[in-house]
Amino acid sequence: MKIYIKSRWKRFVIPVPFILLRLSASILKSPWTMKHIPEKNRKYVEMIDLNQLLKCVGFLKRYSGLRIVEVKAKDGTEVVITI
Fold this sequence. Notes:
There is one protein chain. This protein has 83 residues and is α+β, with helices and mostly antiparallel strands. It has one domain (2-82). It has helices at 18-28, 31-36, 39-47, 50-60; strands at residues 2-6, 11-15, 67-72, 78-82. It has a four-stranded antiparallel sheet with strand order 2-1-4-3, with no helix packed on it. Strand 3 and strand 4 (78-82) form a beta hairpin. Helix 1 (18-28) packs antiparallel against helix 4. It is globular and about 40 Å long.
């Protein structure tokens, strides 16, 4: 997966390996991490079914080049996430 960020003056490309996505998902649900998330935001993290999310990530791996997110702001900033 790659994250492209383009503003007026700079461009960034951030490669994110799928193994890093899987690792971050497992860390997100750990009790230590949940303890550091504010109570008002914890409900959003608890809504995510990480087992289903990891299945989707594995499935989407086959579709390299697919654009998941493409956002353009009024000030010219663009963010594109591709698989």
